[in-house]
Amino acid sequence: MGSGVGMGMGWMWLFWVLLILGVVLLAVVAVRAFGGGVTRSDRGDGRMSQERSRARQVLDERYARGEITTEEYRERLSALGEDR
Questions:
Q1: Transmembrane stretches, by residue range (predicted)?
Q2: Model pTM?
């Protein structure tokens, strides 16, 4: 039978694995909390920022070609939420 000293060693690896996973999870949560986390526009493939930048690009092109006036440009820029 033995003295029973080695009985707990079989489960010791599970303790260390859970401890390491807990530390990693804590680090991830801390980085997200202090780093601003993930916003809706950051999720996925970044479609929101691409659409917004594409809209701004089209607006800039139309203004450069003279299709819209400065006033219209500023109004539409404000509507996009990109006031200068």
A1: 12-34
A2: 0.41
